Amino acid sequence: MIYREYGQTGKKVSLLGFGGMRFANVDNHDECVKTMLTAAEGGVNYFDTAPGYFETKSETVFGKAFTEFKKKGIQFYSATKTFKSTDSEIRKEIEAQLKRLNLQTIDFYHIWCITSLEDWKERKDNKVVSTFRKLKDEGLINHICISSHLIDDEIKELLMEDSFEGVLFGFSAYNFKTRQAAFDAILKNKLGAVVMNPLGGGVIPQHPERFKFIMREGESAVDASLRFLWDHPEITNTLVGFQTEAQVKEALAAMEGYKPRSASELAEVKNGSLSSLEGICTGCNYCEGCPQDIPIPQFMDAYNQKILLSKEGNDPIGSRLKWHWDIERSVAGKCNACGQCERACTQHIDIIMRLKEIAG
What we know:
Order of helices and strands: EEEHEHEHEHHEHEHHEHHEHHHHHH
Oligomer: single chain
Largest sheet: 8 strands, parallel, barrel
């Protein structure tokens, strides 16, 4: 396992991290704990979850795994998050989180999911930063972090504030162009940098032919996806949302055979991406809750098929809607362009345009 310094915290975290939002069966605690234990025994020491993953069940599983880690003398770092922004709300949340996680202190606590600079201003006005600083002074958290889905200059502007010790953001072989600006601020402020969705929400391994530009001889799509990120020295940790123990073993094997590219080799790989892969939906589902009851995540998944699989003469969107989702195209025509979904979209996808195109 490779370990890197997390910003200026003095902590060394594993380059491969464990994300707790995709357990195959979160109610099977023994199976989930075994999966986490396999990761820990393989050298993973950074474990990230959130209260919204499986309606707090993920944090409960993590608490049971952490108990086993302690029994075995395994060192680990905990990471979780909160959407709350007022002092009373945050304190109520963290009290429950500490109990679920079976911890007295959370190592890396994140202001969760900043989707716009306006969103960030509102949370600051609620004094979220000062509350986090109090939690740190009281020993309830060790490090103040932020989780963001902003892109380009917006994420750079966010991270230039002198408020955080680390950041969690999306970065992968399909969206690196619009996330690159974050590294300017990460380097300047010496932040820890944890990236999520390294496999593009599963898109990359499902369509390896589209990502040959990152693949070296003998590499699987999973190997190539992770190693592409590990080639970036600015990245402290890559979070993989593991479903099963087998997936953990696959990722650990990718680490064992990893040979870093030089900076020039990495630049050549990036230049080799013949066409931009921006705009592929990763299925985070933040766009759910459409006032017109349009199942937007399913439609965006179908649109992915056009981006990834479209060939002259076929209809990948229609096929996906019919055979995978059993949804009529006409449902997309109910969109009244209110914009709620686009404001919630963490990838800034033109959802309204795509719905109009799907409806025909």
